[in-house]
Specification:
It is a multi-pass membrane protein. It comes from Montanilutibacter psychrotolerans. The protein is of the alpha/beta class and 582 residues long. It has helices spanning 2-8, 12-45, 50-95, 98-103, 106-148, 150-197, 199-204, 208-260, 266-308, 366-373, 396-401, 417-421, 431-440, 444-449, 467-481, 497-511, 523-526, 546-552, 554-565, 567-573, 576-581; strands spanning 326-333, 343-350, 355-359, 381-386, 389-390, 403-406, 415-416, 457-458, 485-489, 515-519, 531-536, 539-544. The protein contains 21 helices and 12 strands. It has a 6-stranded mixed beta sheet with strand order 6-9-10-3-11-12, with helices on both faces. It is elongated, with a radius of gyration of 36 Å. The structure holds adenosine-5'-diphosphate and magnesium ion. Magnesium ion is lined by residues 366-367, 489.
Length: 582
């Protein structure tokens, strides 16, 4: 936690001013009973000095102002701290490699950025200063009391210790309940995030009742925890007031006997009663401090774990050539945390300006090969070279800028059509260039039909666009991005044949003069590739042109004859849900 705070650098000036202000307010709190004692004693003697009234008023006022200031400053530092921690985390999250996102749920990470940062800031500002001033008030009060009267002090302390003996176990239990409530709420959040983002799946499989039941169980559990908390809290409040009242009574009874035998003044007794609150309040604060400490400890362990993750490297060489050969040399790969190899010593050569195709049944590692080119993952063994240099040595951003990746389902980011076409492009393109790119991608017609054209807001995940339209927006983006290496991962697989034809035309013009790497199911796409690689369970079982493979690779030949003999089968093999998205 300490390291985290040092990273977030809360303002030292503000924090120490807040601490100073809270010291002033502590001094006021400590002085108040003593000054009251003086006033009461003067009243008892019938000779009130106006200066003691003025002093009391000034001390009360100054204490109040100081405490208000300190509260404000603390909140400010707190908000600054939350903002700094969140920025730090988001920055980190964006730098983490793709692999780290395979391992942890998105909902959990969101909760880190939102809740955990809050807990830490709460502890580091408000709770820390509360603890400091609470301890000072406690120690100060007891010292002053000792000076006033030893026996009465011991009576007060005895009462309070007794009262806390009763209250503390309850408070500890309450803390435990609060922690489990927090955990369960986070879990419910995770379930909800999942269900809502996959609402189409839920509805398509009429799984609403199942999902309702699943969240109902969590909701019930949280409710039950809440009711337990309510029971204990209901008892705790009155218990604390009862204990305090009892303590005051004991002090009153013992104290008034002392007043009547003349060993203390009535003012001293008044001061004692007031100090009971001074001692009790910090002790109550201490219990909330312990609760917050526990929360923040958990939060900082989780955040620290995240911050320790290795980032994608930022440095590296510039990519010199724009028309190098991309080459896989004996590349093996297994996903991090998995034993089994997905790719086994594969060798691939992608010549500049040519089109290569990867074919093979689903699950044979085609997308994995493409992920390695994008450097989402690094090969476990072997090397990937571009223009003779390992691609791992290039500056990551510079390398990725060379690549255009069009996947099966083109993702849409929140924003307008224009934002989406310009997504990730560093230059500012004028509208006529955007329109031209849209035209080449076959997207202009439907964009112009949209209510606000380029300014139409696209809903989350592009639900107000068809699959083919999203794909054409992705292609328009590629025309502007102008990559050297173009990767098409089943880019037309989820489209109906009419849309597929249009998208294919757009893609053909996009592929002109680039190094193209194409993954496709349809042989019509593959046949014209300069070189075809056949991937079989992570191994290259054959490569060459279509005609070469037809004669050398029986599996390929079988596939070809099947697809050309029964063109209808192809359509049936399309997954129904994806066709629906188009
Ligand atoms: P293809 O694109 O040819 O259908 P993939 O490259 O997507 O195949 O997958 C190849 C294998 O790697 C599959 O067995 C799949 O289960 C596994 N795999 C894919 N992505 C991941 C991942 N992120 N983590 C672990 N295993 C994965
Ligand atoms: Mg794939």
């Amino acid at each position: 936690m300490w390291r985290l705070l040092r990273l977030a650098k809360p303002s030292g000036v503000l924090l120490s001013t807040a601490a100073a202000m809270s010291l002033v307010s502590v001094a006021g709190t400590l002085a108040f009973p003593v000054l009251t004692k003086q006033l009461v004693d003067e009243l008892a003697k019938g000779a009130v000095d106006t200066s003691s009234i003025t002093l009391l008023a000034v001390v009360m006022l100054a204490g109040a102002v100081a405490s208000a200031l300190s509260a404000y400053l603390l909140s400010r530092v707190g908000y600054d701290l939350i903002a700094a921690l969140r920025t730090l985390l988001i920055d980190k999250l964006l730098r983490l490699p793709v692999a780290s996102f395979d391992q942890e749920s998105t909902g959990e990470r969101v909760s880190r950025v939102l809740n955990d940062c809050q807990s830490i800031s709460e502890l580091a500002t408000r709770q820390a200063i509360n603890l400091l001033s609470g301890v000072l008030v406690l120690v100060g009060s007891i010292t002053v009391l000792m000076f006033l009267d030893t026996w009465l002090t011991l009576t007060v302390l005895g009462c309070i210790v007794l009262a806390f003996g009763v209250v503390l176990p309850l408070v500890a239990f309450l803390e435990k309940l609060a922690l489990s409530t927090q955990d369960r709420t986070a879990k419910l959040g995770g379930i909800l995030t999942h269900v809502l983002s996959e609402i189409r799946l839920v509805k398509a499989f009429t799984a609403e009742s199942r999902e309702r039941e699943r969240s109902r169980l969590e909701i019930q559990d949280i409710r039950n925890l809440g009711i337990q908390v309510a029971k204990i809290s209901a008892v705790l409040g009155p218990l604390i007031s009862l204990s305090l009242t009892a303590a005051i009574l004991v002090v009153l009874i013992y104290g008034s006997s002392r007043v009547s035998n003349g060993s203390i003044s009535i003012g001293t007794l008044t001061a004692f009663i007031l100090y009971i609150f001074n001692v009790a309040v910090p002790l109550i604060q201490l219990t909330t401090f312990l609760e917050e400490l526990q929360k923040a400890r958990g939060a900082s362990t989780r955040i620290a774990g995240l911050l320790q993750g290795t980032e994608e490297s930022t440095g590296g060489e510039a990519v010199a050539s724009s028309h190098g050969t991309l080459e896989f040399r004996n590349v093996s790969f297994s996903y991090p945390g998995r034993e089994s190899k997905v790719l086994h010593e594969i060798n691939l050569v992608f010549q500049p300006g040519t089109t290569s195709a990867l074919v093979g049944a689903s699950g044979n590692g085609k997308t994995t090969v493409l992920s390695l080119i994008e450097r989402f993952y690094a090969p476990t063994d072997g090397s990937i070279l571009y223009d003779g240099k390992s691609i791992g040595d290039f500056a990551l951003a510079a390398w990725r800028e060379r690549i255009g990746y069009v996947a099966q389902s083109a993702p849409i980011m929140p924003g307008t059509v224009r934002d989406n076409i310009l997504y990730g492009l560093s230059d500012d393109f004028p509208d006529d260039m955007v329109n031209m790119a849209a035209e080449k991608a076959g997207a202009l017609a439907f964009i112009e039909q949209m209510p606000q054209g380029l300014d139409t807001i696209l809903s989350e995940q592009g639900a107000n666009l068809s699959g083919g339209q999203r794909q054409r927006i992705a292609i328009a983006r590629m025309f502007l991005r102008n990559p050297d290496i173009l990767i098409l991962d089943e880019a037309t697989s989820s489209l109906d044949s009419e849309t597929e034809h249009q998208v294919k035309l757009a893609l053909e013009s996009l592929m002109q003069g680039r190094t193209n790497i194409v993954v496709a199911h349809r042989l019509s796409t593959v046949i014209h590739a300069d070189r075809i690689y056949f991937l079989d369970r992570g191994r290259i079982s054959g490569s060459g042109s279509h005609d070469e493979l037809l004669t050398t690779h029986s599996h390929y030949a079988r596939l070809v004859s099947r697809q050309f003999r029964e063109p209808v089968r192809e359509a049936v093999e399309e997954p129904l849900l994806e066709a629906d998205a188009g």
